[in-house]
């Protein structure tokens, strides 16, 4: 079996009128005096909302959710029921998607530098669509998966993105023709072009330029005799903070550029690989203050709090994800405006001093046993934890409203949700939080 977990934890039905913070309150009350384990509450309604926004704003673009971003089973299963495809980056991610019933044709193996054995695995399981950006990859694919449908990934201008990917991946435009000719010589089938403008892209013009670049590659490939039919516009979407309004603007620019460079009559299939967009705001993390030190200071006390999740656990994103470079856990309890604030350092639980969450953070005094919450913890968190010091990983509690659970159709978006209903009918559900 793959290294990724295949949990089938029950999903809680959220009673009408209850909110996610009621769920968190209820969970904390349940844990009181029993355990102080960190936990996430996942709001599946939030994921549905994002999906409906996607299909209404980007009707030509089918999302292939990037599993790397968050591989929680219920999330993947729900997205599959919403008819998204999946971007997998390894054998284990492919195995996980297939084990959840995803069809091989709904998977793109979107990694341009793959281990030979993983390509062989993809072949054995009829996962045919995969990306490449170099000649060595073509040789490996021709050896173990000659029937693959190949997508050439090009490097694009990602200088306006928080996380740049083009230094590591993507063929430069001047090298594209030679690569395509090599694919021809090897008798391989190239069907499309992909790019990724970088995670947390701040400029819609990056998409326009990338789509225009992709058009050039389509023309070269068609000239060489390939039947080009797929454009993959990658990931890089977000809707939190400054990005809230930008998603609509991005969608307009993408739709306009697609219509200009790939008019609908071309019959082109357009896909994307959104990760962050789908899950970022669906996850709230709750952590517990497990220890405290007060250091006398000449002005006021310096508080040092130690919480039970940190940089080696759910918060590793602090070290690599600019979207999370500043996490600000806030007290779960109600805080009075008049309460004095103290300069506080919040540390994670491990024995390493880089396990620090905040440096100079002014908050009211906390006590051992208090809970802190962190919002927007869905992207690049649960999938990037380590086992360092073997602290318990945050448990994941998933909730959904009865409306989402039972809705066969979304009238506002004119979308059938029949598969979603079937998914919830076959998943263990309960009402543990409704009585709190
Ligand atoms: N596709 C590929 C190939 C990636 O490398 C990534 C992220 O690194 C994604 C999709 C998802 O990107 P995002 O979370 O910015 O949407």
From TrEMBL:
Nuclease is among the record's keywords: no
GO CC terms, sorted: cytoplasm
Residues forming coiled coils: none
Cofactor: pyridoxal 5'-phosphate
Residue ranges of every copy of the Orn/DAP/Arg decarboxylase 2 N-terminal domain listed in the record: 45-279
Positions of modified residues (N6-(pyridoxal phosphate)lysine): 68
Catalytic site positions: 351
Keyword vocabulary terms for this entry: Lyase, Pyridoxal phosphate
SUPFAM superfamilies registered for this protein in UniProt: Alanine racemase C-terminal domain-like, PLP-binding barrel
UniProt GO MF annotations: ornithine decarboxylase activity
A GO biological-process term: putrescine biosynthetic process from arginine, via ornithine
General function of this protein: Catalyzes the first and rate-limiting step of polyamine biosynthesis that converts ornithine into putrescine, which is the precursor for the polyamines, spermidine and spermine. Polyamines are essential for cell proliferation and are implicated in cellular processes, ranging from DNA replication to apoptosis.
Family: Belongs to the Orn/Lys/Arg decarboxylase class-II family.
Protein name: Ornithine decarboxylase 1
Primary gene name: LOC100693074
